[in-house]
Amino acid sequence: MWIVLRSRNAIILVIRDICELSRQLMPKCHLGSKTTKMELLFLVAAVAILLTIQVLFFFYQEWEKNSSLIKVPFMEESSLMNVYVWIAVLSVVFTFNISASTCNLMLLLCYNSYCILYKIMESYGNKLKDELNQGKCSFKQISRYISLFATITRRVKEIDQALGTSAFILYTTTISSLFNSVSVVLADSQSYRTSVANVYVVWTTFTAIVTFLVLTFSGALVYKGGENIKQAMIDCSDIVAKHSPNLKTTLTFSLLVENIKGSNIVVTGWSMFTIQKGFILSVAGLVMTYGVLMYQMDALKTE
Known about the structure:
Elements: H1 2-6, H2 8-25, H3 36-61, H4 63-69, H5 81-133, H6 139-186, H7 195-243, H8 247-261, H9 278-302
């Protein structure tokens, strides 16, 4: 949450800039996701269910154990000891759920921002092809698209700088949640062999997988948008060749082609890794390896 609050001004400015660019290229297009209300409802429900599970686990199933484990000097014989334990456990539960709520909002922010970038790049390639097909192949027109492409690449870089840390934290949180689920499933503690614990494992695993897939697929859309622009330039080259423009226009178009061809439009997780679909296989292999190691360690303990 501290990272989000610290970079809130940068995030607001970047989102405002991409919204303005989106209105410029797609004045009649809906910005972001059309199901934002449903997404917010799902995120609120996810946190509410998680809070309910934790309340049942800590305040009902494990309350006696918590009361015996939490000791405070000079308060063990006090009548306020139970109140202190209650406040301490409640603080832990609410801290965890506030973090979960922050992660959900970060996911919604990243998802919508990446989707807008993809729509912008799709609109850019389509508009360029449409205008060239209409015979609008002039020096002024091509120069405008060079400027627009430079603006798009800047906006992608700004979004990556503003939300890259959030994406990185989301990935570390979801992967840690998957590790936690594997650990709970393989643990020998009887506390984890109850209905509440089973529901917790299923729900956290489900939300972690959904978060991971939504973030990965939306981030991969940015890369796909960049590749689609490159493909659009191949089609545009054929159109320009048919129009046989003057030398000045041809050189300007060649400059546009070189700029797009040499670009690498992607979003990252704090500049440590590129968000692409192949990242799913890497994480899946990591979680499976962790599960196998945990299983082998438990098997060695029982021998």
